[in-house]
Amino acid sequence: MGEWFAENGLLLGLAGLDGLAYAALVFMVAVGLNLVFGVLRIVNVAHGSLFAIGAYTAASIGLFFTAQGLPPAAGYAALLLGAALVGGVLGPLIERVVLRRVYGYEDVLQLLVTFALFMILEDMQKLVWGVQPVFQDSPMKALGTVEVPFGDDTIPFTAYQLFVLPGVAVATLIGLAWFLRRTLTGRVIVAVTTDKEAATAMGIDAVRVTLLTFTFGAALAALGGALASPTTSLVPGIGASTIVLSFAVVATAGLGQIEGAALTSLLIGMGRSAAVYFAPELEVVVPYLIMVAVLLVRPQGLFGVVEARRV
Amino acid sequence: MTVPLLSARGLRLAFGGVKAADGIDLDVMPGEFLAIIGPNGAGKTTFINMTTGYLRPQAGAIEYEGQAILGLAPRAIVRRGIGRSFQLPQLFTEHTVLENAALAIAARAGIWSPLVPLLRPGYRRDAMALLARFGLEGVAEARADALNEGARKLADIAMAVALEPRLLLMDEPTSGVAASEKMGVVETLVRVLREAGVTAVFVEHDMEVVARFADRVAVWSQGRILTLGPPAAVLADPAVRREVIGIEAAAAHG
Amino acid sequence: MSRRAEALLALLGVAALIFTAWAAPWLRFVLTVALAKGLGVLGLLLLLRAGQVSFGHAMFLALGAYTVAFAAPSVPETLVLLPAAALLAGVAGLLIGLFVVRYRDIFFGMLNLALSMVFYSVLEKFYAVTKGTDGIRVPPLTIAGLEPVRETQEWVMFGLALGLALLCALGVRAYLASPMGQALAGIKTRETRLEFLGVPARRVLLFAYVLSATMGGAAGALIAMTSRHVTPQLAYWTSSGELIFIGILGGAGSALGPFLGAAAFELVRVYAAAAVADAWQMILGGVLLAVILFAPGGLIGILSGRAQQRPAGRA
Predict the structure, then answer these.
(1) Is there a domain that residue B200 lies in?
(2) Are strands B216-221 and B224-229 parallel, antiparallel or unpaired?
(3) Best residue in A100, A252, A285 to probe C by mutation, most C CBs within 10 Å?
(4) Beta strand extents in A179-297 (DSSP E only)
(5) How much is the average pLDDT of A101-117?
(6) Cα–Cα dist C201/C187, whole Å
(7) By CB distance 3.0 to 4.6 Å, which of B65, B92, B237, C228 could disulfide with C138?
């Protein structure tokens, strides 16, 4: 064991740091998916496309800013602008024009509607940005790297991935918890999630809440994509792989608590990152193995609550 | 002395701090109609859920025909001859009433024949006969979710009766039924059950129904049985009138 | 749809398929694949009957396809490989089914998705065995010991797919009308009642799951034999989504729906891909949206609506 650690310790440290950064991104996507499912009761397959389009938009704006000779700090504005643009335009558009027509339809039809949106958005993204990789990492480069002490050694790691990604995720978690529990709008969202009929009967405007929640969820996905964009080159297919991963997070966590989604993102992020370094062929599999193992023991998910059926 | 059909001893079950069953002892005698009354939250449905295997008590024992049934799955208990109907009728909403009845008849015979249609002549005839006993033959081809509440309740009970139970537990068979239909529903019900020789336990809020059709009444309050006896005596008891019927009357008129 | 209308539609469909395959030889391949996919979708429909959406059903098609790819070099006989693939998929369906039938709704869907993704990445990552994303070429196969010329081979595969499709459609139709099939539909609306009728709901669902996996395996085998090339993409989650897509496009109300849906899907895909290479997915997505919004009964629903526009007609 000691020998193994001496050889692989640094790798383990790196896997941990990578896992943390990755978990932050996964959380941003999964928490939005969870929120939307809570209110709309629709598993939004197109959620991953919003992540992808958020990433592409942010990168394009960033490249445009750089071409205009703006300082690297403008790159951060590009990230936020990209997320806001995608969430604020595509979110309401999808909810108002498409989803609103299928509330009350059978589950499978609602699911398929979002699958259709996924297919449309995937091609749209290819038409706009092509299939060549898009790369824009100036926000990450601007912050440089940090030497993270690890035992007697240090691990060089980008400050962006070390501070910005987990920082934004933690801020989102805290902000969202505060919003849902302390503000009126947030409590209304929770009320609709818990019991839509009762909430509507109490005079809550479910139509407005639905629009708001979907837009909010879309913006979170787009922000996740925007934040991810400096760390990787963007290629077709990132939307598809992101959405299946966040499905795994949501199912593992169970439906409901956002803290649960955060812890599960951490678990799955770390697990995947460990696989990347120590068993690369298992990289894609690990999140699903975790999910299957968890559901074997806890059928309602790690943090899900069993709903008793009233008879 | 007659041996009880069902015998519950010391049943206890608490949800959080709420005691839904706090030492329930009850014997149900063969052939009787036993009514359970009491305010909402007294644990009446919990008793039915425990007896049918839907909930497991934390302590106590239940014997049916002299054999322990606690811990058995609802399916196994049903097969031993205990049927139940539901406060919210549990019908297959996308099937017709006839198909609902035929499925219940098929369930008794065993459903594991994948190639013969459900509505084979034998099942269709039996299902129609069953529906006719409940006066439902007119709505046989209607979808179950299109029925009014009275018909829905009867269809729900018909499905339980199709299994030919010896004991039938009914959870508020008349709740939600329009006042004008209520007595008709109960009369049909009692006639069918008497004909089939089924022992019945039913939760009921309508004291008129209880007074007319129950052989004995058990009064539930906070997970306990307050009083047990013939309706005339129990319904006249001042304590019962104050604690239970008073609330019932207020609830009915409020 | 009435019995007679359905039988008539089936006959018309078979005639149209055979005529198209004869008149337009380049579509024979497309139609064979469509029939195979329809077979897979027919299996998926059984689960939809119970209100359960498997977002990983393509794994059984992939399993059937890879069974053919792996076994073909040693046993290059169509009539052995096809049942073998179906059987293997059925056994896998039993093992996986024992686990997943305990779950409902989103958890059922996601567990199937997870298991299919595990299978996908096994196919993708273990290059030494599976050749990864390059996939495996399937060698030419014999049929009952004979080695027919290419055109005969195509006809045989087409006929095999058509025959199997008809057989399974009839079987599924009978099964859905039986007490077991009706109990399956009962899982969707009132599972509690099933239990209180003394019917083990999980076993009812398991039977359907194994049946659907078996049909999926046969479908995958036919696809591998026709396209002669298998890749991990067969198991990817979007392929499962495509199967659900076809099921809804055709209409979930009839055993003919999947085949109608699959033929429409494959034809739209072929022509859309030829017309606008970069946007065929978008066109398919648009078609799907239009079907759900304007004809939720699917193509079958449209056809049967036409066939019986009488006031008293019950769907």
Answers:
(1) yes
(2) antiparallel
(3) A285
(4) none
(5) 90
(6) 7
(7) C228
Residues belonging to chain B with any Cβ–Cβ distance to chain C shorter than 8 Å: 52, 73-75, 78-79, 83-84, 90-95, 99, 102-104, 106-108, 111-119, 123, 159-160, 163
pLDDT given at position A143: 85
| Residue scoring higher pLDDT (B178 or A217) | A217
* Between A45 and A4, the higher pLDDT residue: A45
Concatenating the DSSP letter of every residue in C76-104 gives -BHHHHHHHHHHHHHHHHHHHHHHHTT--
Q: φ and ψ at C305, to 5 degrees?
A: -60, -45
Average pLDDT over residues A116-131: 93
What is the residue extent of each domain of chain C? 10-235
- Does the residue B103 lie in any domain? no
Find the mean pLDDT for residues A281-304: 89
Residue A304 pLDDT > 90: no
pLDDT digits (tens, 9 = 90+) for B106-124: 998 888 888 899 999 999 9
Query: Residue with structure tokens 């009880």?
Result: B4
Burial of C256 (0-12, 13-18, 19+ CB in 10 A): buried
User: What is the C-alpha separation between C299 and C260, in angstroms, rounded?
Assistant: 7
What residue numbers bound the domain in which B248 lies?
Answer: 6-88+158-253
Q: B205-246 pLDDT, tens per residue?
A: 889 999 999 999 999 998 999 999 999 999 888 888 877 766
Enumerate neighbours of C (3 or more CB pairs within 8 A): A, B
Q: In chain C, what residues touch A280 (CB-CB under 8 Å)?
A: 125
Mean pLDDT of C277-305: 86
Distance from CA of B86 to the nearest CA of A (A): 6
- The pLDDT tens digits for C205-247 are 999 999 999 999 999 999 999 999 999 999 999 999 999 999 9
Please tell me if residue C75 touches chain B, with a CB cutoff of 8 Å. Answer: no
Asked if C235 and C59 touch (Cβ cutoff 8 Å), the reply is: yes
Averaged pLDDT of chain C: 91
In this structure, are residues C57 and C220 in contact, taking their beta carbons and an 8 Å threshold?
Answer: no
The total number of structural domains that make up chain B: 1
Backbone torsion region of residue A60, taken as left when φ is above 0, otherwise alpha when ψ lies between -120 and 50, otherwise beta = alpha
CB contact under 8 A, C244 and A285: no
Chain C within 8 Å of A112 (Cβ-Cβ)?
yes
8 Å CB contact of C118 and A112: no
Question: How confident is the model over A22-51, as a mean pLDDT?
Answer: 93
Alpha carbon distance A138, A134 (integer Å): 13
Average pLDDT, chain B: 90
Q: How far is the C-alpha of B42 from the C-alpha of B46, rounded, in Å?
A: 9
pLDDT in tens, B34-83: 999 998 888 999 999 999 999 999 999 999 999 999 989 999 999 999 99
Coil, helix or strand for B140?
coil
Task: Say if residue A305's pLDDT is above 80.
Answer: no
Rounded to whole angstroms, the maximal C-alpha distance in chain A is 67
Instruction: Read off the tokens for A83.
Output: 């997320």
Output the CA torsion C208→C212→C217→C223 (10° steps). 170
Q: Which letter does DSSP use for residue B219 in this model? A: E
Percent of chain A with pLDDT over 90: 56
How many pairs of residues across A and B have Cβ atoms under 8 Å apart?
A: 8
B13 falls within a domain: yes
Chains within contact range of chain A (3+ C-beta pairs < 8 Å): B, C
What are the phi and psi torsion angles at B82 (to 5°)?
-105, 115
Is residue C253 within 8 angstroms of chain B, CB to CB? no
CATH number at residue B246: 3.40.50.300
Residue B167 counted as domain residue: yes
Facing residue for B103 by CB, picked from C175, C186, C195: C186
User: C-alpha distances in angstroms, B36 versus A176, B15, B202?
Assistant: 48, 21, 6
